Amino acid sequence: MSFPTVRHRRLRGSAALRSMVRETILTVNDFIYPIFVTHGTNVKDEISSMPGVYHFSMDRLEEEIREVVSLGIPSILLFGVPASKDAIGSSAYDHNGIVQEATRAIKEWAPELVVIADTCLCQFTDHGHCGVVHVHEPTGIAEVDNDQSLELLVKTAVSQAEAGADIIAPSNMMDGFVSAIREGLDAAGYSNVPIMSYSVKYASAFYGPFRDAAHSAPQFGDRKTYQMDPANAREALREAESDVLEGADFLMVKPALAYLDIVRTLKDQFDLPLVAYNVSAEYSMVKAAAANGWLNERAIVLETLTGMKRAGADLIMTYHAKDAARWLQG
User: Fold this and answer.
1) Active-site residue (options: 44, 155, 224, 254)
2) Model pLDDT for residues 57-80, shown as the tens digit of each residue
3) Is the dihedral of CA 176, 210, 261, 202 positive or negative?
């Protein structure tokens, strides 16, 4: 029996040897941790569909921020859950809105922590859509007014930057939202505040627990008219290219786990930093399976996050960030 004289040799040595040649390195610096802040006092309420994730009132938020900083997590994504809502989401751009108030406080507690403000209206509108909705009579058909929505989103972004947000992250998927927000920020004197665009945001079933967390489920219809069809890949390139041309500083793919092919495609096509959003249902499925003893949570989470980075993500938004930070340190 003859064997080839040259062949690939699998590295079967020690863990140290394998680590020396590891191609993808996951670190705490890759993580962005989402936080939900709300009104009230002494609120630290666990979200039923997202074990380990909480709503925080302002008087309980500092303890969470201190823990995030102690773990070395460099950045948070801030979501507001307001006490009241209206048809135009006015509390989203209120100078004293919950996101603005929290941002100012966080920058005092932890100036080095990068605060990313989610810029959308869905948590703040009583109808749960990401923009201004008009109902056409007599058909009763409701449509989102793209241009009027842009005006309010610009006001929201400017108010968030004024409060001290380091990055504006528009998640609304309105047409032209990056250029409108960029123009608005520049005109208001915030030309150095970057935009992390939710460039490729699919109309996904993986958002279910988040809508529970943010109290943002649409009261009628759905968001398929302004979020992407999960079956489409080439459309992702067009959406991302549009955002690049409009002045985005970061691109994002949301959700991440079922769309790693899209993450790789964008990584290969564009040279902007790329963010993968490890969304709520991706998190909750792991938590549920772990609670039932069906899998090793630590191993699954670190493998999943490594896969996202291997696919091309420069940064990963994940509710696992605190746990993953502890595991990587250990």
Assistant:
1) 254
2) 999 999 999 999 999 999 999 999
3) negative
| Identified catalytic residue from 44, 85, 201, 287 | 201
- Torsional class of 174: left (φ above 0), alpha (ψ -120 to 50), beta (otherwise): beta
| CA 123/CA 131 separation, integer angstroms | 10
- CA-atom Rg of the chain in angstroms: 21
Structure tokens at 134: 């008009």
Residue 257 and residue 50: Cα distance in Å, rounded? 17
The Cα 223–Cα 218 span in angstroms is: 8
CA 305-284-231 angle, to 5 degrees, is 70
Mark out the alpha helices in 215-296 (DSSP H runs): 234-246, 260-269, 280-291
126 phi/psi in degrees, rounded to 5:
-75, -15
Structure tokens at 1: 């029996």
The residue with tokens 């989610």 is: 118
- DSSP assigned state of 319: T
User: Would you call 64 helix, strand, or coil by DSSP?
Assistant: helix
**Catalytic status, residue 44:** no
Q: Convert the pLDDT of each residue in 225-279 to its tens digit.
A: 557 899 999 999 999 999 999 999 999 999 999 999 999 999 999 999 999 999 9
Q: Compute φ and ψ for 234, nearest 5 degrees.
A: -60, -35
Using CA atoms, how far residue 22 sits from 37, 95, 257, 270, in Å, is 38, 48, 22, 25
For 98, the 3-state DSSP assignment is helix
Can you point out the beta strands (E) in the chain? 31-38, 44-46, 54-57, 75-81, 114-119, 132-136, 141-145, 167-170, 196-201, 250-254, 274-278, 315-318
224 is catalytic: no
CB atoms within 10 A of CB 310: 14
